[in-house]
Amino acid sequence: MQDASGAVVAFEHVTKRYGGPDSAPAVDDLSLTVPAGEICVLVGPSGCGKTTSMKMVNRLIEPTSGRITINGDDVASLPAVELRRRIGYVIQQVGLFPHLTIGQNVEVVPRLLRWKAQRMRERTDELLDLIGLEPAGYRDRYPNELSGGERQRVGVARALAADPPVMLMDEPFGAVDPIRRDRLQNEFLHLQQQVRKTVIFVTHDVDEAIKMADRIAILRQRGILAQYDTPQAILANPASEFVERFVGADRGLKRLSLARVRELDHIEPVIVRAGEDRAEVRRRLDRVEELTYALLVDDHDRPLGWIDQGDLTGDGTIDPGAATPGAPTVQPETTLRDALSALLGSSVQLGVVVDDRERVLGLVSVDAIGDRLRAPVRAADGKLHPLGTDEAAK
Amino acid sequence: MTDGEPFFRVEWVVENLDEIGVRIGEHVYLTVLAVVIGLAVSFALALLIQRRPRLYGPVVGVTGTLYAIPSLAFFALLIPFTGTGVVTALLALVSYTLLILVRNITEALNGVPPDAVEAATGMGYSRGQRLWRVELPLALPVIVAGIRIATVTTIGLVTVTALIGQGGLGYLIVNLGINRGSSPFGPTATYTGVVLAVGLAVIADLALLAVQRALTPWARRRG
């Protein structure tokens, strides 16, 4: 994968009216700039003009006034057909061509651009690898032989085929069930870390917007831009009552889903193994003020359970059966929202951070998650926002 | 046919194999020509309708009217203008295919999944590329189904063209059969013509079905 970075996409006073000059605009004087390599999510209620705005970028819809530029070049300066070949396009119903194989589907734009067969073939295999579909097994199959999730991934691969700097995604994960949607979202974010396209992503789902976006543009009825900022900044400081209502009363919790366990300061656990001297463990635990539990681990450093300070009386060695099992484990990538949920459900409100081999890395506490929520947020304009009265977070 | 006469005389068939072969050839030739011309005209009309959907009503109205004219009457009407040649036969035969094919091709193109059309446009297909590479291939199964109906209908109608001297299996049925009612071989010729015409229709239908399946491998392989 070449590390082609995205291009800057800028809307400059873009207005779209479907009727005459006196009709209500579908998009009203929209100006915003999407930095190269970022995901900008256009979100808002139906009728807010988010899809119209997106489709003006590849000129499926022409603006009534204003202009859109990609790296400074007006999109209207190229024939629409040529422009579209340079912009990736993913739609909700995927729109794979049922009469073409998966390989031929991925090669659609390269073929339009008259790539050599050899280059197309290499690119297709590379992309199928990238989206986790084994090329030899998938290249020659037809779309109706794939699952919905696989088809959606092929749709993304097809949009990436000619390595366009800009991708437009119109509710790309809207037609799949919540579990599969979550997986596709994660896969796409992972993919984006590698390809670094400028992505304009349309959704009506505010949770999806928060999860996917580097920046969110919240549009209200008639295509008026209500707020354009990072998800963190929008959740911490909604610009208006409309934005506040739109992001929902649980925006404190939503902010937690933006941060991950690895961003917290971990607490060093007191680790014990079966057969260690009880008095020694007692002394170690006494030295750590914030802990009243020792963590019992097995020979591979995997957590087995908690040993309460009060159960460490007397002499002798640690008995593995003495531990209270059920220490909730979280991974560095776990969102704070999921971590909080896991912690609240256990008797000892400490989470054990483990790596992908289940080995203990450290501990996180409910208090640390709460502290994180009260920290100030840096907005897209670089200003630090002071602590909001974030009722929902308390 | 009188009592005691055999109903069907195999020896007549054996003696006239050459004649029968020629008539089958004429029948196939006229059918293929009529369907190919009909397809070309219908295709052009269907594309016109794609660009200007308002034309659909008038086009179906006119072709429907043509379809409603009885075949014998159609030939009779044309003879003063075009004589009794192959042109007259083709004009009538082609006219009859138009209603079936125009309606069918239009429906086939309208039935192309809208998401495929949107994806094609969004990825930078020009209008013509989209038509030839996406819409027509996807419309093909329905179009071929229409061609099957038009072909079978035309095979039936070609038998009537014997009346204006165009030969075909109608020649066996009419000229050698019905018109020679007194001949002991008349009924044999008629039934030979009828059986072959029906057989031809069945074979054409199955052959086109095979073509349809060969052209649409994606519609068969599932899961």
Description:
The complex is a heterodimer of chains A (394) and B (223). Chain A is of the alpha/beta class and 394 residues long. Chain A is built from 15 helices and 18 strands. Chain A has helices at 50-57, 80-85, 102-106, 108-112, 117-130, 135-138, 148-160, 178-195, 206-212, 231-236, 241-247, 251-256, 278-287, 336-344, 366-374, and strands at residues 9-16, 27-34, 39-43, 65-70, 73-74, 87-91, 166-170, 198-203, 215-220, 224-229, 271-273, 293-297, 303-308, 329-330, 350-354, 360-365, 377-378, 384-385. In chain A, strands 6-7-8-3-9-10 form a six-stranded mixed sheet, sandwiched between helices. In chain A, strands 2-1-4-5 form a four-stranded antiparallel sheet, with helices on one face. In chain A, strand 14 (329-330), helix 14 (336-344) and strand 15 form a beta-alpha-beta unit. Chain A starts with 8 loop residues before the first strand and ends in a 9-residue tail after the last strand. Chain B has 223 residues and is mainly alpha-helical. In chain B, helix 2 runs antiparallel to helix 7, helix 5 (86-110) packs across helix 7 (127-158) and helix 8 packs antiparallel against helix 9 (186-215). The longest helix of chain B is centred in the N-terminal third of the chain and has 35 residues, at 17-51. The termini of chain B are far apart. The mean pLDDT of chain B is 85. Chains A and B meet through helix 2 and helix 4 of A and helix 6 and helix 7 of B.
